[in-house]
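Appendix B, record 7
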Amino acid sequence: MSGRDARGPMSRSEPGGPMNFASHDAKKAAMVAYTLLDVIRQGPVTRLTFNRPARRNALTHGMMLELEEAFGAVRGDPDCRVLVLRGAGGHFCAGGDLDAMAAMPPQPANGAEDPLVPAYRQFGDALLALNTLPQATVSIVEGSAVGGGFGMACCSDVVILHASARFGIPEPKVGFIPSQIIPFLVRRMGEGAVRDLAVTGRVIDAAEACRLGVGRHLCSTETEIDATLAAVIADILRLEPRALATVKDLVLGCATMDDRAVLDDAAERLVGLLRRPQASIGIRAFMAKTAPPWAKG
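Structure tokens (predicted):
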């Protein structure tokens, strides 16, 4: 959460920016021009930066809309194989912007539907879009990562933690809840750990987050982060893209599908992949101890 206290000047909600595909050289292709995000693709890697550093990248509704649009653009980009998320200014994302949340319209009269309900529910759709991307997703988390920022980290495939990272769901301290992130936190860390955080409101450090499974890589310097990210991306780019998307989808299915349904689906998908030419190419390359054509680096 981010409020007025010691956070810099107050910033209200801004509207989401329109999609504006720009032309760049082949190595560095800017995907979209946004107001609250920086999104650029460098070869097969798209880098998305939350860009409200004066507010610790706290979420407004405009930023939530831009995130959902950006995740949709990544999904539809056949040349993107990795999405890297990071926050500008040394913080990942400080959850909801309290100033924006406090500026509520009057409650509708006569039992009419409250327009704020679908507005807040929309962030859940943005999280689902991130969680189910067919590309690999990597979050670099430093500084504040509470509320919605915590949720986005838990929707990422790989999380690289800086020692400064702090996670929590402190919203009940000020009288509300983190409504859209809970399923993703529970799947990442388990019910017990999330219940602890939910009823205490405590903030955990990077080391505890690593022990709970939020991330697997704990770094103390920017140099370590760069080296870890380079190694993670190199591993990802060795995988055939459709096979990566398929195995990721099967892992996600284990949280919501019956085991037999997952196994039936996995068998059909395996055969489908084996009948593609990429499988024959990959097997021959492995036997010959050479790299298949999709392997980068």
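Remarks on this record: The chain has a mean pLDDT of 89. Residues 27 and 43 are 5 Å apart (CA to CA).
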